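Q: My labmate handed me this sequence with no annotations at all. I'd like to see what the chain might look like in three dimensions before we decide whether it's worth expressing. Could you predict it?
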Amino acid sequence: AGAGRAVASVGVAGSGTMASGIAEVFAKAGYGVVLAARTQEKADLAKGRIAKSLERSVSKGRLSAGARDETLARITAAGSLDAFAEVDLAVEAVAEDLEV
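A: Here is what I predict for the chain of 100 residues:
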């Protein structure tokens, strides 16, 4: 078997606590992350949740301000799954709602 395709970017579908946490972990690890929700507003709120989490880590001395800024810069909030066109890996973390 040949070598697998390298993963440099990750798409996370969802805007809740789980999706935000997954996106944060990937971004901290150095991956470019597209965080996609049903609306741009929900995606922006999810990115804001990540910013608050990172800020808590800075205030507790677990993360530098520079690392916080670099991590946030790796995350793009998107209001559509169309933004996944160029990602290498997609992770689904949407609400368990049949209407979604």
